[in-house]
Design goal:
- The protein has a five-stranded parallel beta sheet, sandwiched between helices.
- The chain has a single domain, classed as Rossmann fold (3-Layer(aba) Sandwich), CATH 3.40.50.300.
- It has 213 residues and is an alpha/beta fold.
- Helix 4 crosses helix 7.
Length: 213
């Protein structure tokens, strides 16, 4: 049995709007960490924990939610996720990979819902506090391309049914957040071929390896 490396636990998030290819990217990240012999868990937002998954259903499948309600539900879900999954894993010495984390709120609620970054920042400091990500991979894609990709999935959830302007605001907010945290962000052009996206993700981890290890 291969002995896993005992290193400072790291928190990695994967971000991107609809149709960016996060499922494929997550598989690549897992392969990278397996190659590094890192012990890790994978989780997601909204969700990742029983109560958070119930809130996820409200967020995605309610007929209608006020923007502020959506924001507060996201952070309620995130708090349970942090306290019951993320923090225990990090404290146990495991790395955490989360399919979306707090940056998604800056993008979706701050940008998409036009609530602004200041409200998100206050909740970020209150709920997330010092449990911030060490490295974030952002899959950047033109919303028109991303939404075309997800049409094959069939029925859309409440978020996916929003208008195109909503998704362009999300893309703009993601880029703004990446600029604010450029020291820990890798932006991947998700409109490229799958093989090129995989290659760029692998290269981004090599570029950040010294910082992470």
């Amino acid at each position: 049995m291969i002995q896993k490396h005992k290193l400072t636990p790291r928190f990695i998030s994967l971000e991107g709007s609809e149709g960016a290819g996060k499922t494929t990217a997550l598989k690549v990240i897992r392969e990278i960490l397996d190659g590094w012999n890192i012990e890790y868990i994978c989780t997601r937002e909204p969700g990742g924990e029983p109560t958070s998954e119930k809130i996820r259903d409200i967020l995605l499948f309610s007929e209608k939610l006020h923007a502020k309600t959506e924001l507060l539900l996201m952070f309620a879900s995130r708090n349970e996720h942090l306290e019951n999954v993320i923090k225990p894993a990090l404290n146990a010495g495991k790395w955490v990979i989360s399919d979306r984390f707090v940056d998604a709120s800056y993008a979706y609620q701050g940008g998409g819902r036009e609530l602004g970054f200041d409200r998100i920042k206050w909740l970020d400091e209150f709920i997330v506090s010092d449990t911030q990500t060490d490295f974030t991979v952002l899959l950047d894609i033109d919303p028109a391309i991303g939404l075309e990709r997800i049409k094959v999935r069939g029925q859309s959830d409440r978020i996916e049914q929003e208008n195109m302007e909503f998704f362009y605001r999300i893309a703009k907010a993601y880029k703004r957040k990446a600029q604010l945290d450029s020291h820990k962000y890798a932006i991947i052009d998700a409109a490229q071929t799958i093989e090129k996206v995989k290659s760029d993700i692998i290269q981004s981890f090599e570029d950040f390896k010294e910082q992470l290890m």
